[in-house]
Write a structure and sequence with these properties.
7 helices; about 130 residues; about 0% strand; membrane; mainly alpha
Length: about 130
């Protein structure tokens, strides 16, 4: 994600930059909270788990901006809620590309994964009204 944000911000990245400037403690805490919330959602039924995943999708991007884990969860929820149509469209594109990648016996994921990572970072930046490279 750090690399995708660097590409969106500056137009380039490097391997070393992908692992720098990451608040590991907050990222791990946010991941743990998301895992618990998603697990509870899937235990209740499949649909609540999918909704939780969708609403908290941008949590790690918010953590990379220096927010605490709990603030990042709230920021992701608010961001998805405020831009629901755009995020649903991005999710549908991701599902479609994933289906195409599966049809290539998984080899297509070599292209789909970085493309969707940059598309998600671009969506995060642009829908916040921030410039992208």
């Amino acid at each position: 994600m750090r690399g995708a944000l660097d590409v969106v911000d500056t137009g380039r990245t490097s391997f070393g930059a992908m692992f720098s400037r990451i608040p590991w403690g907050q990222a791990l805490l946010a991941g743990l909270i998301m895992w618990v919330a998603t697990t509870i959602g899937f235990v209740l039924c499949i649909i609540p788990g999918i909704i939780v995943l969708f609403l908290l999708y941008y949590t790690n991007y918010a953590v990379l901006e220096g927010r605490s884990a709990t603030d990042a969860l709230g920021a992701s929820f608010t961001f998805v809620k405020d831009h629901l149509g755009e995020n649903l469209l991005l999710m549908l594109v991701a599902i479609g590309l994933s289906i195409l990648a599966i049809c290539t016996c998984g080899i297509g994921f070599l292209v789909v994964t970085p493309v969707m990572s940059i598309a998600t970072a671009y969506t995060w930046r642009v829908l916040q009204g921030r410039p992208a490279a």
